[in-house]
Amino acid sequence: MQPANAPARYHALDSLRGVMMLLGIYLHVICAYSNFPDVWWYKDARTSLFFDHNLLFIHIWRLPVFFVMAGFFAALLNERRGTGGFALNRAKRVLAPFVLGLAVLWPLLQGLRRYTRVWNEPDAVWTAVAYVFRGTYWKWLDPTHLWFLEVLLVLYVLALAFLPLARRIDETFLSGWIHRAFRAVVESAWRPVVFAVPTFGTLCLMNLGVLDTLHSFAPAPRVVLAYGVFFGFGWLLYAHADLLPSFQKHAWKQVVAALLLGWPNFWFLLRHVQARPAVDALGLYGTAATGALAVWLMISTRQRRVSA
Hints:
The chain is 70% helix and 1% strand. By secondary structure, the chain is mainly alpha-helical.
């Protein structure tokens, strides 16, 4: 049994985090069966438009939901443990897994990549194993599937750097105005539309109007900014955790609306892709607008606070 004064635990957010992780497994599996180029090094001979829609729609909102939760729990951790405790905890729980994960994942992925190129040869497995042990691929090391942890680490550093300024703002009239405005928007029926505005701006900076991924250790400012919107929303939401139950209002209607937006989003993206290397303005802005609104419609999961 937990003591009566045990810190509150957000069980619904724990559940949501687990679902998003499982959904990530499905997302990466269907990459091999979609028609989208450059999203996987191996493509099955039988690709499907169905998986194209799946891949794009899930990509719109899965990681943004993660970053909302990351911001929420970062604020919680900073409040409970202070700046030093927050930094130490994130180094242990995020930085260390990032480094160790790359040490394991990079050789494994390179071996699999090599195998897909020689799979029809008699000694394909041993060729791939020998390639792994040669280790020449380390010179091309990149964050691979763990790139989102790099973005998260950058946002943690930026949050720590911003904390002194945030404390100063808390001492001014701006603090009350910011918090009142945030509460008003979160409680409003127009919440998805209002928060879609900054996300639309960040998506317009992307290559295709959808969230880009990192392929190097140099964090792209546009990617950090895009995910920073969700992280910042989560951080502010922690200060107004009493509003969490409001997210269940019209939640299923919003999910249905987001699903419907998936079709024009897909159409706008195809239009933009087919026009490349030229920029199709309607395709780019249409993809960004429908994607921005869809992601904020999807950030409407039912949540409630329960003591552990």
